[in-house]
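pls design
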């Protein structure tokens, strides 16, 4: 039986401060936890209802688990309809050295504030085999419940680092990493000769784009051009950040 203090602790992990104070976050759902079990992350405790335990009885072998009632699961779940399985997970080490990114294609996110957008970007990056995403310090927490849920397990395969971008990008240049950036007046992504390894792609928020403090580090500005023929009048002000990131990643991964 879950104590009131344990319930309070689990619910507190909804809040950024308490997640980082305790270096733990919550994962829910059968698919997400299945992916979690095949990752290198440490599951501190797995809570299951009786029904979920029947499904995961073999898979959870060796894990510290507790079977709880449906009522208790509702008390600790962060979802409107609890799936019946919830894990407390130790936060991984998210520090990163730019030197380790040589030979890879990585993403840099400047000021992405919407959890759904970040989750979609992480999931798309995983699809394209991108293993590192470096975020500005004010980008939404990657362990926010809505981000975790929307990545559908991709979070456990992609390392996310929140750091000072000007410091990180200044070091990156010295290691020979090409720094691309999505801007409104850059070279068309379809015409640029893209360097597909040892490269960083910087994506800004749809509200502000790449901010002035980061722009000086962009060596190779890119843009997604509007089509030359349109059937409607007027243009949108910008693309959704996750859509723009997906288009650019796809172009970098286009088969030669």
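designed seq:
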């Amino acid at each position: 039986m879950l104590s009131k203090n344990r319930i309070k602790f689990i619910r507190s992990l909804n809040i950024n401060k308490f997640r980082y104070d305790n270096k733990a976050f919550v994962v829910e759902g059968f698919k997400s936890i299945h992916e979690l079990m095949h990752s290198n992350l440490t599951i501190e405790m797995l809570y299951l209802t009786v029904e979920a335990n029947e499904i995961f009885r073999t898979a959870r072998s060796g894990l510290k688990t507790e079977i709880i009632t449906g009522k208790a699961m509702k008390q600790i779940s962060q979802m409107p309809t609890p799936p019946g399985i919830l894990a407390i997970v130790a936060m991984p080490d998210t520090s990163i050295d730019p030197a380790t990114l040589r030979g890879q294609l990585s993403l840099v996110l400047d000021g992405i504030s919407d959890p759904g957008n970040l989750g979609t970007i992480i999931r798309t990056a995983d699809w394209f085999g991108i293993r590192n995403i470096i975020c500005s310090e004010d980008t939404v927490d990657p362990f926010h419940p809505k981000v975790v849920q929307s990545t559908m397990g991709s979070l456990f395969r992609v390392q996310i680092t929140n750091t000072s971008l000007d410091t990180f990008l200044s070091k990156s240049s010295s290691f020979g990493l090409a720094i691309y950036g999505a801007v409104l007046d850059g070279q068309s992504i379809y015409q640029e000769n893209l360097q597909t390894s040892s490269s960083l792609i910087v994506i800004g928020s749809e509200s502000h784009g790449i901010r002035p403090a980061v722009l000086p580090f962009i060596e190779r500005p890119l843009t997604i051009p509007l089509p030359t023929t349109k059937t409607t009048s007027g243009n949108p002000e910008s693309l959704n950040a996750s859509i723009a990131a997906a288009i650019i990643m796809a172009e970098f991964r286009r088969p030669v």
